[in-house]
Write a structure and sequence with these properties.
By secondary structure, the chain is mainly beta. The protein is built from one helix and 27 strands.
């Protein structure tokens, strides 16, 4: 870790000449030794620099690039350069050659302003966790109907990319894997809770085998008022056996890898009658009436169709549900009260 500030720096390099699409501004440079084949995380956090022992907080919009030397054409990698005030830039790089590399931290200039200021530069070598691949998935064990784990995808590699229709988040970032046994006749609730700012677009998906095409279902987390919202889904297996969970870092809307710490919780529940539309409870008419009672406490959220339309008072259906099947006759009105 090292702090810096581009406020008093000069613009010494023309990035446009090096095919980096941005107007250059004041820049600072740092050297670091990299080993070929190892993975390194390079991160620049704005607003964390110091000037005259005072922390500098501004609309600094940093980006950075890696050089193999100080000559023109030496750029080997660059951060995304997403345009946003006080936005952290992050990159994972695997050098092809061992040697000294140079990190240039730059500022953004427009016709009306130059975004410069304090920052903190962090570089660290990454070491993949033991469960970095599905083939080496960590075994989850059940205790009183609950299986839990905690992990961090920051050092993981990207080994699997299930369809976004299943993984829900593109699943294009570093991933970790867990294995657990599921049984027919039970339902399971899977929840992943991101624990830091980098992880708020993580996804969790269930696999019937270690293949991207074997993805069964999944969910992604989100961000609400600056707080990560857990990703959760319910699954009722049709076959008993070993299943695999992929915890994927995915990508944020601005294409930053959303890696970080998380907790994983899997709950085993007894099946509830009428828990899905396919298993709806049959109701019968008794003297032109029917009645029943129920409880959604242990039910799953099996229908998430969003707004049900004006016929259902434009309700948004997002919670646990129970299902019932009622025979009707053409031409007769039915009044349902709950």
């Amino acid at each position: 870790n090292i702090s810096g500030n581009t406020t008093t720096a000069t613009d010494t390099y023309s990035l446009k000449a090096w095919n980096i699409t941005s107007t250059p501004g004041p820049d600072l440079f740092y050297s670091v030794n990299f080993t070929a084949g190892k993975r390194y995380e390079v991160m620049v956090l704005p607003g964390m620099g110091f000037l005259s022992s005072t922390a500098v907080y501004s609309s600094y919009d940093p980006f950075f690039y890696l050089l193999s030397g100080c000559g023109a054409g030496s750029v080997v990698a660059k951060s995304s350069g997403y345009t946003s005030s006080a936005r952290t830039e992050k990159m994972i790089y695997t050098p092809a050659k061992t040697g000294k590399y140079i990190i240039g931290v730059d500022s953004r200039t427009t016709a009306s302003y130059t975004r410069k200021g304090g920052f903190r530069l962090r570089v660290r070598a990454l070491s993949a966790p033991a469960n970095d691949t599905c083939a080496k998935a960590a075994k989850l064990t059940w205790s009183s109907g609950v299986a839990q784990a905690a992990g961090d995808t920051s050092d993981a590699t990207t080994t699997m990319s299930p369809p976004s229709s299943c993984a829900k988040n593109g699943a294009k970032g570093p991933d970790l894997f867990y294995a657990l046994n599921l049984s027919v006749g039970k339902k399971y609730i899977f929840t992943i809770t991101p624990k830091n700012q980098w992880a708020h677009f993580m996804s969790v998906y269930l696999l019937s085998s270690c293949s991207a095409s074997a993805c069964v279902t999944g969910a992604k987390s989100s961000l609400y008022s600056g707080v990560a919202v857990p990703a959760t889904f319910t699954y009722t297996p049709t076959a008993s056996g070993t299943y695999y969970l992929g915890i994927d870092s995915g990508l944020t809307p601005d294409w930053i890898v959303s890696a970080g710490r998380f907790t994983l919780k899997v709950e085993e529940k007894a099946l509830v009658s009428g828990d899905t539309c396919a298993t709806a409870v049959n109701l019968s008419w008794v003297k032109d009436k029917f009645s029943t009672s129920g409880d959604t406490t242990q039910a799953s959220n099996s229908y998430t169709g969003g707004s049900s339309g004006s016929s259902c008072n434009n309700m948004t259906v997002l919670g646990p549900d129970r299902w019932y099947r009622l025979p009707t006759q053409a031409g007769k009105n039915v009044l349902v009260q709950a």
